[in-house]
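During the reporting period the student researcher (J.K.) took over the structure-prediction task from the postdoctoral fellow and processed the backlog of single-chain submissions. One of the processed entries is reproduced below for the supervisory committee.
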Amino acid sequence: MKAENKLSKIVKNVSRLPESMHVPDHRIPLLKNMNIDYVRRAAGDLTAVAHVTDEQIERMRNDEKGEVKVAVVITDTDNKEPVNAAFTWAWVSKKC
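J.K. obtained the following structure tokens:
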């Protein structure tokens, strides 16, 4: 597997963590949009951090249907950002 594919999978999984932690089990999370721009070659280890606001968390917990944009900051060993990534995660109610 190419490094770009591995990196995009890692970033996607990190972006999903906030939603999976806050969307109740009776709703289905869906990836609506994924934007990854490879800016430079990564050096060494990578750290990925996803960020959502308190307002987004509240919406994920209470709205039956919605979406949030999750930015992910990726830094490498040189403390540079080799990738710009943003994801739009949506959720809907499960049909019983």
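The committee noted the following: Residues 3-93 form a domain with the Thiol Ester Dehydrase; Chain A fold (CATH 3.10.129.10).
J.K. will present the remaining backlog at the next meeting.
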